[in-house]
Write the structure tokens for this entry.
Amino acid sequence: MITEREIFLTDPEEKAKVVEFLKGFDLTFTGIIDYTMGLFDDGKLIGTGSLGGRVMRDIAISSDYQRKGLTHRIIRNLQGESNRRGINGNQIFTKPKNVPVFEHMGFKCVAVAEPYAALLESGTDTLEDYLARVRTFLGSGEGKNRGAIVMNCNPFTLGHRSLVEYAHNNCDEVIIFAVQEDRSVFPFSNRFTLIKQGVKDMKGVEVISGGDFIISNATFPTYFIKGTDELAAQTKLDATIFATRIAPALNITVRFVGEEPTDKTTLAYNQAMREVFAENGIELKVIPREQKGDQIVSASSVRRALAADDWETVYRMVPKTTLTYLRSEDGQKVIRNIKMQEAFKQMEGKTK
């Protein structure tokens, strides 16, 4: 008799069994995972599925047990857990060959990035719901040269400001999509406010949330987890969703990005956008990074300076709006967290 139950990831042995099981399906057990369930036959793990927020992921069934309706059983379990958590809509990140299976269960395909990955969704808060809200706020943009920038801004710097200025000078309207995923040291609510404050003097520049469809846990978890094997799949999927669904719906014809000389993830993302956008008639403009003296202005440089109490560097790299925030109670709280994280890194380095 096949039974199902939650797998408690706080138990190292239980987690190790899931990790080992998923290796056989080329699935990496990384990123946000809030809940994992397993199917067992006489105590042997034969199938599993997990939830990360509203994303269903790492769904796999042993070959001897496939085509027995067990995928439906995993999905029902995950949907039930989602409902208990107050989540009314789900997304699935899977391989393209599995799209028909999940479509048969009522999921709708958002985009496919061959040969790597596909994203499907069901319930509420779908991509169409998101785009309808954005169109209501921004208008159609028809007849205008509308550009876009996606920004995390951890925190907002003069480098970000320079990129927006370039886009502003080359477009009638600029939409800034702020990365909503709360995986950065500066909380999303603060990052969103810093972006708005940093560009409020530019007419025709609007700041909106990127929601669950731009550099999110569903489309691009490796943006927040550097160097995993899923990088190629997720960079292409995220770029495909933007080029085939978001840009056409919002009449976006060009996207602006900063040049990236070192970071592997951002380099791969820029390359994926270059290839996918060219296939879909979207222009990609890569702008050289802002420099102050011999230093490239970047959020990571600001964070390092904050950890070291190097306020001279911070003053050179951030606008007054960000500086005011950093001196506030909320900003000081984040700075304490940065220093604590840096201290842990140094402790780990000494113990290795």
Summary: The mean pLDDT is 90. The chain is about 45% helix and 25% strand. The radius of gyration is 22 Å.
